[in-house]
# Entry
Amino acid sequence: MAAWFKTLGAKTPEEAARRRFGLWSLGMFILLLPPWWLWGADLAAMGLRPLAGLVFRLFGLTGEVGVSADGGWSVGTHLTSGGVPATYEVTQSALRRLLLGFPLALAFLTAPPRTPRPIRAAVVSLVSLTLLFALSVTSLIWGDLAAQLNPALAPPSSGVRQALDQPPLPALVAQIAIIGRYIGMSVAPLIAAVLLWAALNPAGRSVIMDDDSLKD
# Structure
């Protein structure tokens, strides 16, 4: 234990535990990220495609999900452009970004001090992150579609978009969809991983927060 303190440069056991958690989480994520980004995320997206199609139906899409030439998804919509049914192309890189919660959660949950119920933590994390992924892709699609239906609300960086035949969405609904898109594409995976770790590992949470009352 003394060697750990010297290595980490910690003055107290509590400080050492926090540094050990941080170093483990960072190191594990760095190790997991390359194989996950190159292979794991694509395999996960392939397996989650049928479930995502079911979720898409619940939010006004057709539920048809094809695979595009670049490895992304071609998602069917009930919208048309020039009388032709419009599909939304989700790029492979976007799918990979939306799946980053999985390696993040694994890095956090395997860092010491670990949860005494790892199987429960794994099951809850898988279910939660799977649902988050499906909802995040849905928000990505509708956020872009809202910008196409409401060009005045589209950010300047959105570029050229196809013209859709349908009338604009209500302004409030369109703004919610556009904001949801950016939340899903930016901070949602990190927030989900942190919240899962905090909920499933109270002992670890108490160490990081330096509050023994959080163990319960």
